Amino acid sequence: MILYFSGTGNSLSISRQLAEKLNDKVMPLTQAVNLDLSQEQRIGLVFPCYWFNAPRAVTELVPRLKLNKQAYLFIIIPCGAQAGNAIWKVRKMIAAKGIDVAYSHKIRVPDNSAVGFGRNPNDQVWKFDRYAGRLETIASDIAAGLRRKHYAWWGPAGALCAIPAVQRRTLPMLTPEVNIDKCVTCGICTNVCPQANISFANGKAHCGDNCTQCLACVHFCPHQAVELNHKATPKAHQYHHPKVALSDITCSHETNKSTPTP
């Protein structure tokens, strides 16, 4: 079983490709926390790296998983460049359950957070072809039951980005806000938010304090009403994996939230 968390589809696509190569199944992490997985002999966790660490949503959900202590467990990180401390942090959580992560790796994909720094994630689609070979290697390693931990150790970048003073300077660039003058209450942002962090009040959408920085709301808003650092994201810079639809993201988060009515 491959469990995934995905904001704009990169992790979902990687999970689907791995499942096809391994003859396995995929399931959203938000749904897996409600199931007993103690009979599964192989469990994969696929999730992105956000600001050199594991997403807040993932660190909240992983401790709730009911897992087989004898399972072969692997972690794969789709990321723009660096896996940071994402694998290390979740590996520690898994170890607290008495389970050793057998295998871990990363694979580079377009970085959806690039919009926070004024760049276009769609300019990075070349990564799909360049790193296709790594995906083949990862699938082959897992199928063979290899025990190799790539990018699984603590690093200074994740620790640096966790310092409150650094977060105060950087997180606003990756924390969405709704421009209520542009919002038409279509409800898409609430449907894609895995944290139920966007709600309606006085006929407009508003962001709360439980953001995981997945930026799904930024990339899927059809009116570019969800902004970063008070700046609109141009439509040409909005990104989602080309083989992942809006409905895929909505369905993957539906059990972890309730959708407000506009």
Task: Give a written overview of the molecule.
The chain has 11 helices and 11 strands. Residues 257-262 have low confidence and may be disordered. The protein is globular, with a radius of gyration of 18 Å. It has helices spanning 10-22, 29-32, 56-61, 86-95, 126-130, 132-143, 156-161, 164-170, 188-192, 216-220, 246-253; strands spanning 2-4, 26-28, 36-37, 42-46, 66-67, 72-79, 101-108, 176-178, 198-201, 204-207, 226-228. The chain folds into 2 domains: 2-160, Flavodoxin domain (Rossmann fold, 3-Layer(aba) Sandwich); 170-256, Alpha-Beta Plaits (2-Layer Sandwich). With 262 residues, the protein is α/β, with parallel strands linked by helices. Strand 6, helix 4 (86-95) and strand 7 (101-108) form a beta-alpha-beta unit. Strands 2-1-4-6-7 form a 5-stranded parallel β-sheet, with helices on both faces.
